[in-house]
C-alpha cells in the first residue's frame, strides 16, 4: 500500500465495473453539495449520476442515496433516437446553488443538460454537435457565479464556451486549436477561482494548466509544461478544483497522482495514487475539508489536511458540518469551561477546539 492509499478515508464502488446501485463503470465528474452533504458522481458508462452521503460520521460516508438518468438502450440506438433528458457518456458536473440545479456535460450528445438539484429531475438542455456556436464532446463545466455564466470546455473544438446562467444564451467563446497562450489542445477540466476572478483549465494534450481572467477570458499565465513526471510537471491532466487559499489541485492523470499548486502556479505537493489507478476528476468540499477523486471504477475520498497542511480550517459557520462525535466533544468542553471562571479552558475559542479534536 502506498503512502497515498493509506490516507484514504473511504472509497465508493468496487474494483470491477457494474450497473448496481453504488457501483460504477468509469466514474468521471464529481461535485460536493455542502448544503445537503451529498457527493454527486457522474457514472459515465452507465449513463447516469449517482448520489452519495459525504458525511464522515458513523461509517456512513459513501452511502448510496439515489441515482438519476432517463437513458434506456444502447448507444447505437441512442444516436438515432435521443430524448432531451437522456444522457450519453456524461462527464463533467457542476452545482448551481443560486438556481437550484445541476449542470451536466452530456458529452456523447454534444450538449449541456440542466437538472433540478432538489428534485433530481430534468429541466432543459442546450447544444448539439458542430463547430459554430455548437459543441463537440464537451467534458468540463463550471459555474461563474460572480458573472452569471456557465463555462464549458468544448473539448474537441479546442475552446471554452460561455453561456448565460440566466437564460442559457450564448455569450462568447475563447481559444482555438494550438499550443500558444490562450490556445488549447483537448481542454478537459475547468474550475473557477471566485476570489481572484480566474478560470483554471486543464489543457490536457498540451500537458499544462492555463489560468485565464473570468472577466473577459484573457490569458494570465500557465504552469505544468513540459510533459514530464517531475514535481510540478504534468502529463495529460484531466481534472481540476480549487481548495481553500486558492490552491489548485490537479488530477495529473498520466502520472497517476494529484498535484497541488499555489494560486500562482507554484508546486506544493504530490499525492501518489499508486495502484488505485489514474485519477480522472477531482473535487474539494470546503465545508468538511474533503478531497474526492475518481480512478478506474471507484471514487476515493481523503481529508485535505491529511495531505496538504492548512488546506482546511474550521470556521464557526461550518459547525453543523462537523461529525457528531466532534460536536459532542466541543459541546462538552464548552459546558465545562463555562462553569470554571478564568480557567485555561474558558480562553480556548470554539474554532481552536475543532482543530484540536480533528486530530484526535
List the topology elements.
Layout: E1 8-13, E2 27-33, E3 38-43, E4 48-53, E5 64-68, H1 75-80, E6 93-96, E7 101-106, E8 111-116, E9 122-126, E10 140-144, E11 149-154, E12 159-164, E13 170-174, E14 187-193, E15 198-203, E16 208-213, E17 219-223, E18 239-242, E19 248-252, E20 257-261, E21 267-272, E22 279-285, E23 290-295, E24 298-303, H2 304-307, H3 324-339, H4 350-358
Antiparallel strand pairs: 1-24, 2-3, 3-4, 4-5, 6-7, 7-8, 8-9, 10-11, 11-12, 12-13, 14-15, 15-16, 16-17, 18-19, 19-20, 20-21, 22-23, 23-24
Helix pairs in contact: 3-4
Summarize the structure.
By secondary structure, the chain is mainly beta. The protein has helices at residues 75-80, 304-307, 324-339, 350-358, and strands spanning 8-13, 27-33, 38-43, 48-53, 64-68, 93-96, 101-106, 111-116, 122-126, 140-144, 149-154, 159-164, 170-174, 187-193, 198-203, 208-213, 219-223, 239-242, 248-252, 257-261, 267-272, 279-285, 290-295, 298-303.
Can you give the helix content as a percent range? under 10%
How does the helix and strand content classify structurally? mainly beta
- In the CATH scheme, the class of the largest domain would be Mainly Beta
Please compute the radius of gyration using only Cα atoms: 21 Å
Strand content: 35-45%
Number of domains: 2
Question: What kind of oligomer do you see?
Answer: single chain
User: With helices defined by DSSP (H or I, 4 residues minimum), what is the helix count?
Assistant: 4
CATH topology of the largest domain: Neuraminidase
CATH architecture of the largest domain: 6 Propeller
